[in-house]
Amino acid sequence: xxxxxxxxxxxxxxxxxxxxxxxxxxxxxxxxxxxxxxxxxxxxxxxxxxxxxxxxxxxxxxxxxxxxxxxxxxxxxxxxxxxxxxxxxxxxxxxxxxxxxxxxxxxxxxxxxxxxxxxxxxxxxxxxxxxxxxxxxxxxxxxxxxxxxxxxxxxxxxxxxxxxxxxxxxxxxxxxxxxxxxxxxxxxxxxxxxxxxxxxxxxxxxxxxxxxxxxxxxxxxxxxxxxxxxxxxxxxxxxxxxxxxxxxxxxxxxxxxxxxxxxxxxxxxxxxxxxxxxxxxxxxxxxxxxxxxxxxxxxxxxxxxxxxxxxxxxxxxxxxxxxxxxxxxxxxxxxxxxxxxxxxxxxxxxxxxxxxxxxxxxxxxxxxxxxxxxxxxxxxxxxxxxxxxxxxxxxxxxxxxx
Length: 402
Prior knowledge:
Blueprint: H1 3-30, H2 39-51, E1 55-60, E2 63-72, E3 79-84, H3 98-119, E4 122-127, H4 139-145, E5 154-156, E6 159-161, E7 172-181, E8 185-186, H5 197-211, E9 220-227, E10 234-235, E11 238-247, H6 250-271, E12 274-279, H7 291-298, H8 323-327, E13 332-333, E14 336-338, H9 349-354, H10 358-380, H11 382-401
């Protein structure tokens, strides 16, 4: 079969099956589940992959709602991973469109399965919970840590957005908990016997505010007090806070982490308390971009008749995503698929509505085709894949040197 025949088979399969995934997207939207509690959503998507003939392992990489779905041809070839997200935001639900995101990748993977026996290689779909953070969040970091990308050539996914545009320059973030332990005493009767954990925490806040003066403009530190004591007339022996430490690269974020820990240590010394400081979930890395990979993806816009007015340019995001962790080990893209004709902010009621709108649901076959056709290019053109891997390695080295 020629490339055009493979492309036609992919498109035909998606056209024949996308309505199933629209129903799955509606069901997931109606049953929003937060990080590591996405049992309903995970089972729906994993079950669909099993129906398509994938071998699926559940409860992987230390996450009960994660899954690893694989189909391998008898002929050798590349190993390509499609990433699937399906977690919702606390309180508001699917205001980031992950009810669509997972379906984009699963339908694309199923379409590729129809032709991979002829071209050779392995297609995988990794179900990665908790992209929004939360309990044991950022599962892609766990997939990296447990070696799920050690034998992978490239990874791709698509995120719902306003325009069709390349992967964003995402920031790295260190999510940290800060805890102080002091000594309780009556605040009026015998304050000299106490050691205030809250005082240490307040000094930490003030110290971090002073630290901001000496940090690069790209650094963003924000946090909350999660426990400040029980009664105003009792010196707290326990106080805690949770912070996000963001920077343009994971190397800069580590530098901020080290500086903030010094602030915490100083506050403990000043107040006679002890402290705990560390990550409460996986760190999230910045996005290492691979422009050639992005170009291969965008080359299919014209074939799918996507209007130029709906195509955007590369964006810089002040946010973070664990897709960045994957991009530090293999070439990775996460371009955006349009689900709205007008601007809508992420994590908003408007985005939640768009994720279940007619345009949002109709984005499923478009994104699935773009993903599958791009993966097909990599499966078929080994020199292209090697150039992408070489460019990715170069960009990663440049960042490390910087």
